[in-house]
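Supplementary Methods S3. Input chains for the assembly prediction are listed below.
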Amino acid sequence: MKRLPDTELEVMKALWTTGPDTPRALLEARLAPFSWAANTINTYLSRLADKGFVAVRREGKSNLYTPLVDQEAYQAFDSRAVLDRLYGSPRNFVAALARQGIRRDELEDLQALLDQLNGGPQ
Amino acid sequence: MKRLPDTELEVMKALWTTGPDTPRALLEARLAPFSWAANTINTYLSRLADKGFVAVRREGKSNLYTPLVDQEAYQAFDSRAVLDRLYGSPRNFVAALARQGIRRDELEDLQALLDQLNGGPQ
DNA sequence: TCTATCATACTACACTTGTCGTAGGTCTGA
DNA sequence: TCAGACCTACGACAAGTGTAGTATGATAGA
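Predicted structure tokens for the full assembly:
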């Protein structure tokens, strides 16, 4: 797996929330804020297909794109890549966030997750 | 501030550990594992200078590069950018790591940091 | 059936990134 | 003082990314 560029990732995020979908539907339902031309989205989808992140199938008069990599898997891969690239450890990552300001509710959420990770398999 | 490409980030990491330094010294002391040509490092340093990440000063017969952005600041910025790009919250980021496998010591380190951020185990 | 519409495939193009090569100046030992 | 050795500045070039235009085929009313 390879890390995706920003724009392609935005398209994947859209696909992850809608599920298999056509370019136009994605544009209208999820990607409108980017004000991309329809062709632009097609380009990103083609590139994602080339990279094996989505499958293309003809659906009536338009293409239907289906995610082949799910969000969980991509995030699992990407998060570790983030650590390797710059932080080394989860602790350093969170410490960096904290330096820049971490909200109390974010901290609490994180603590809740840790409690769960510790309480769970053990 | 902008996120740096991989290679430029490696050079910044080298500069952060050595402090102000010359291209050759960086290459020999920190960047040898990459097997980059000397010119390659010069290019990365020039680009970093263009982007305002380092300052250049003539030091005898070679250039001395000084980091203008410190590691703490860059990490603070970058870590938040990582969340915005894909995870939304620290919790989601750590959850993604956990899915892919997080080591027990990493978890403990992180917990220790949280305790500290919360002002100790209160 | 002819035309306006829409979708796709293909092409384009500037900018960024990864990686060096070349040209030309300076220092240093023979 | 002259050839290497080094250094830097600048150019180069392929691949990747951001963004869209063009050509072309299918479609659905008029």
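Chain A has six helices and two strands. Chain A has a mean pLDDT of 95.
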